[in-house]
Amino acid sequence: MEAVPQHHTNGISAVTASYKQCDMGLLNDVTRNLEPGSRLNTHSPGSLPSSSSAGSLSRACFSDITHDILNPDRGDVKPGLTENQNGDSCVSSLMLYVQLHGEVVRRLNPDERPLQIQNDFLFKLGFKDPWRVQEEGLDTEIGSLLRFYAGKPQTIESSERVQLSGTYNVRKGKLQLPVNRWTRRQVILCGTCLIVSSVKESQIGKMHILPLIGGKVEEVKKHNHCLAFSSAGPQSQTYYVSFDSFTEHLRWHRHAAKMVSQRIHSVDLSCCSLEHLPPNLFYSHDLTHLNLKHNFLPADQGLQQLQRFSRLRSLNLSNNHLGQFPLAICDISTLSEVNLSCNYLASVPCSVGAMTNLQTFLLDGNSLSDLPSELGSLQRLSYLGLSFNQFNHVPQVLEQLDSMEKLCMAGNRLETLTLQNFRLLRVKHIDLRLNKISVMVPDEPDLLRHVTQLDVRDNQLTELDASVFPRLEVLHCERNHITTLKVKGSLLKGIYASCNELRQLDISPVPSNLSYMDISRNFMELLPDWLCEAKKLEVLDAISLTANVLRKISAGHNQLQKLPERVERPLLEVLDIQHNQLVELPCNLFLKSDSLRCVNASANKLEHLPPSSLSEESHSILQELYLTNNWLTDKCVPMLTGHTHLRVLHMAYNHLQTFPASKMAKLEELEEVDLSGNMLKTIPTTIMNCRKMHTLNAHSNAIEVFPEVMQLMEMKCVDLSCNELSEITLPENLPPKLQELDLTGNPRLNLDHKTLDNIRCFRIDPPPTFSSNEASGGPAVWSHGYTEASGVKNKLCVAALSVNSFCGSREALYGVFDGDRNVEVPYLLQCTMNDVLAEELHKTKSEEEYMTNTFLVMQRKLGTAGQKLGGSAALCHIRHDPTDPGGCFTLTAANVGKCQAILCRDGKPLTLSLLHNIGLEDEYQRIRQHRAIVTEDNKVNGVSDSTRIMGYSFLFPSVIPSPYVQTVTLTPQDEFFILGSRGLWDAVSPTEAVEAVRSVPDGLAAAKKLCTLAQGYGCTNSLSAVVVQLSVSEDCCSCCCSEPPQPPPSPGLGQFPPSSSAMKDRPSDGSLVVPPLSCSEISSEISTSEMSSEVGSTASSDEPPQSSLLPSSRSCCTLHPACLAGSFQRQLSSATFSSALSDNGLDSEDEEPIAGVFSNGSRVEVEADIHCLRAELSLSSSPQTSGPTSSNQDCTLVSLPPPPPDGGNLAGKKRVNGSVARQEKSHNLIEVAADAPSKKSGGYFTAPAQPDPDDQFIIPPELEEEVKEIMKQHQRLLEEENYLFIISERW
């Protein structure tokens, strides 16, 4: 590995104003500017110029410091280190350091080898082939994941540490003493110190450091523009600095005054790559809180210096390399809080009993199996964390802790919960999550009165009798197998029992203090009767009750057929009863529930709605009403008029035919309305009364007249797709906040879209054009439709990918990406992942291998954006293997995170994805091996709820991007498959999704239906759905057998396919061009959550691709036309991108807009079509024999010019998302008219149907003679070659 010098110095960096040493910004900036191929970086001590402040500041940490402060026990000098004249510890022999995911830097041990570390890293990431591991190690992009340094890199930018600097007259000591004189010195105000040094020898001379913490800065009246800086303590020193101007005097005085007055009791040195305590930490002995987590501190004698902090109360040493319990902290009697989590501790020493003031003791994530008896002397201990250790029982010593209030033993090995062990404990809060508890041995209730909170989530309980805890207030028992649950209701405030098998819920007495109850996703058929009785008790004893009464009921996803007639409660605010079997709601639900503000009764069988009032005057304050996917008719609309405060109304996919204007006029507070999937012909004109409305969804109806919603100034989103609109009338001034207008699926609509250029995302159907597929009648195997929807914050954090003709006409690629709360990761995945997959197809033919490698390579291509951000991803690749003569189409699906793919086979869902979370035993054991902590919200280290996801590289090795891959052979029984983001599958089950899509024959309308259902079920996140309709016939397998197999790729790096720009700039003579070094180079910068995002080359090669063998005559069905063998290795076709960012990531030199594709601001829809131009140039029916000839003679590319402005046969390619791109204006469009898709009935479009074998190309008239001449020349060449071949054979 070649060393590249860097501008850094060795030594310990100076402390900033807040003692924070974890800024990696400079390191990222330096490493990003490395020369290609550099992997090991050398930091030379003398690389900085003499005037640079960084070099002097590095020495300022330990210069002019007394010998005992620097290191009281410096008898032994570590090997490889020498001591200079100032007492500095300098590296005499260059040390190697490793940095993972751009964070902390660790020094390698003498027995560690960089290449071995790199190989282990890549194997843990998911690579399996040793040759591929070596290839990945040579890629410079891996630096964002793993980087080695020769010498410790500088981690703090000097400009951030140095606040002020300059050369001034300085005098030390009292002004009255004639011994001290004024001298010109270099003065630096850095961190919390004043540094004074020689001007000429600022880097190697002696430096004087004056700590300003607790000191003072004063004006000197006898001298102009002079300040006196004094340190604190009995041995304080004073420096007088005379400034040149009054302005500098004021500036220095203001900054120094802040340092003197700032709080010094708390120091944060987390994530600073510390291997020992820095000497400048001991400038102040008055520290009370010290944070040293995420470093590399060992449990050696260096920690004994912590005893010098006589007032230290809080110490955090979590995630270090202690290995054993640090005995030094046991002598710090003032400690009240100690965190030693994730330090590979195997035991706790007996001396721990000396910390008598300890109140919080965290030992999570270690290897403890027992505790010493001396722990019982910690009588003030109130919180003990023992989670994720190896306890198989509750330690008996805990019975001696009288002050214990909270005990956390999650993630241990408890199998039986013996409540007798808690009899003598005084614990109020017990956390037993993620154990293997299947049996609970009860005890006398009177002996467990102290327990108020019990958490037994994610265990193996089949029944739970929590009534033995008479004073229980909060019960968590989610994700078990509980069928019967008994709870004492005297003081019960919250019960969380979702995702079980509950059929019976017994709570007695009536829980009058209950404020939250979640029994969703169970097998409940009836709500408990005590819900009615609870109101009686409240009325009878209203004076003694507090405000903690039942406010929310979550009973969705059960089998409820009827609600109690008196389920209403005066203080009930939220009622969630979706996904049940309800036919009607209680008739007085809205009459007496004056405080009810949100009702979700979607996915039931409701035919009627209860009245909102019995008179014209209504007291309803209902604000949100979700009634999607019911059986409601027009008779229900008048029942809504009493809810005058209604803001959100979802009535999609019901049986509405009209919505009377008089009824809409009374709902003036409406802001969001969804009436999609009904039979409406018009939207009432009185919608203009809703001045606050910002969202109108009414797709999949029969609307003929465009509503006048464009006059509402708050309007943001209008979706009127899949209707019968013919024309629209728009005002001159559109709503200023309008961002989305979707008019696709209206085949009769004729609109001049140029008037709508200021809309962020505008979708419209393309004009009807002639397609060769329509004439040929060739069948289409797949067609797709997709849609996206923003979340509540109007931020689109999802992206979809659709490539109808990927790497040829017999392949397709679809994907969905979800960034949860970030936009960067899904956008980068969308723009790059298809190119990465195309490259991987040239390296291996194994479905699991090329899919897995695609995800792993994409991890490094996320660059620095993938270090702190992450996202879910799902890919589906349809292909036909040409090497298998009897093979059919196969579908390969891969996913990480919560994006999933579902295949409908024989009307039933077939899951193609796997959710990687802690619910899987293998995944749970894997993250436990890497000392990961699962927080109470079921997230790994509190960040991700998935154990396999793109990005989040700082969570490696607990969280990795290795996907789940599954390959199925497509059969005629396969109807379609669905890709959805996490928000879709959180709200809609696979079974329901399949049933919903089966009733909608069109892909676009089906995708919209899925997203609408999810929103109607309460989803507030961004949504994305892709529906791919399949039409696989029996002859799809046999018709492909005539094409001869192609040779496998070479075992090396292989031939990378040319980028789209290379295809666009291809010379007209048919010669191949050298592809550029990068196919997509994307950089995204954000700040605060702002970080740099880098995407490197995705399709590059140093040599042009080689031509294949001569084409031979072969027969092929209309589904698979013959292709010229010597053309491109990879073609991207029908690639539809939709993103939340303006840059589409594709090369383009054409600034003109694309017809049907609009980009305004932050959202873009682009289609990149690069079709395969291979064809049989020999039209002779006689058999021919191929011979070895040059590629220039074998393959002649017919270069087609752009179509005329009037359209013609090559006017544009219809898209399933309702847009069209003219060939002369496309960003990356090299298209053969024969591959254009055929139009489908209803105004939607399918995937490219293939032409007849006799009609391979449609040649423009002006090129007919030229093409004929080229074909004649080629025919003559073939005949000459055949003649020469026959002569040679005879000879």
UniProtKB/TrEMBL annotation:
It holds the Pfam family PP2C. It is a peripheral membrane protein. Its cofactor is Mn(2+). It catalyses: O-phospho-L-threonyl-[protein] + H2O = L-threonyl-[protein] + phosphate. Keywords: Cytoplasm, Hydrolase, Leucine-rich repeat, Manganese, Membrane, Metal-binding, Nucleus, Phosphoprotein, Protein phosphatase, Repeat. Residues 44-55, 1052-1061, 1179-1191 have a biased composition (Low complexity). The keyword Repeat applies. It is an enzyme of class 3 (hydrolase). GO terms for cellular component: cytoplasm; membrane; nucleus. Residues 33-55, 1050-1076, 1090-1109, 1141-1160, 1179-1212 are annotated as: Disordered. It comes from the Eukaryota. Its EC number is 3.1.3.16. It is found in: Cytoplasm; Membrane; Nucleus. PROSITE patterns: LRR, PPM_2. The keyword Glycosyltransferase does not apply. One of its GO terms (molecular function) is protein serine/threonine phosphatase activity. Residues 783-1030 form the PPM-type phosphatase domain. This is protein-serine/threonine phosphatase. It comes from Nothobranchius furzeri (Turquoise killifish). The gene is PHLPP1.
